[in-house]
Amino acid sequence: MTTTRDRILDALETLLVERGMSQVTLENVAATAGISKGGLLYHFKSKDALLAGLVRRLGDRTAEQLAQARAQGRSVAEWYLQTPDLDNDSDALELALYRSMVAAMRTVEGPQDDEDDEVRGALTEVMSSWNDGLTDELDDPVRADLIRLVGDGVYLRALLGLPAIPPDRYRAVVARLLDR
Asked: Which CATH number is 1-45's, of 2.60.40.1240, 1.10.10.60, 3.10.310.40, 3.20.20.140?
């Protein structure tokens, strides 16, 4: 059963992907979700809280993907180093959402080190959970950092629409990082 909170976040995703960050207003999100602005504010006290909610939701989806990968016998490191498949609708939508979230992060006002920045705080929580999974799995924290940085770079290339690293070379990179 879809909750009102889920409908609001679905509406935010739709606006971000289909119309861009400039169209993300509390009024537009509420209208797209089919609720009043007051109803939206009941669940999310501000635009920043709404965006932070989306970051956390994307983090929850990622945790589900990681759990599925582990159930299939893949390690956290293997999962982190996977390349997005742009022919897969799910991966393409995920990239569009992350691209929109990067745009949203650029609109957050205040200094980079503002401890009250809810969106940045949510992103830090999500990224920390991924990092924790790698460091828990691997005995070497430097190797965990290398894997995280390579995975982040591969994902950033996809977000920016840059050409992927040739598959044979990337398989060799992954093999070296995983000591295969």
From this structure: 1.10.10.60
